[in-house]
Design goal:
3-stranded parallel β-sheet; Leucine-rich repeat, LRR (right-handed beta-alpha superhelix); mainly beta; globular; single chain; 22% strand; 117 residues; 5-stranded parallel β-sheet
């Protein structure tokens, strides 16, 4: 399925979409500032591209095990990518990231196809 995040949402809560294996695409607006722990963990079918242009913080495991995810784009507001945020996103090839102050350990672990960061 597809999800469009409502304009009133600034924070995607912890485990909000955890394990939604039929979720294919999420449309974020520029007002989303934080994605909390494991918000999209185990969304195996999520493919993207994911545009997180207003996001400042991606917490631990936010997109962990999203094995279908291929592309992520961040905006210039990005400050922190948490531990294991994209761990085991084995199809992830491209990450556009103009800046980030902190990239915690294992943020992109086992992203075997990642060529552009």
């Amino acid at each position: 399925g597809r999800v469009r995040i409502d304009k009133s949402v600034k924070i995607i809560p912890e485990r909000a979409f955890y394990g939604r294996r039929r979720l294919i695409y999420v449309e974020f607006h520029d007002g989303v500032e934080r994605i909390e722990k494991r918000a999209f963990n185990d969304c195996y079918s999520l493919i993207g591209p994911i545009k997180l242009l207003g996001v400042k913080q991606i917490e631990a495991g936010a997109f962990c095990d999203c094995v279908g995810l291929t592309e992520v784009e961040f905006g210039s507001q990005l400050e922190t990518i948490g531990r294991r945020a994209f761990d085991y996103c084995t199809s992830l090839r491209n990450v556009t990231m103009p800046s980030a102050r902190i990239i915690e350990g294992w943020a992109f672990a086992y992203c075997e196809q990642l060529t552009d960061l």
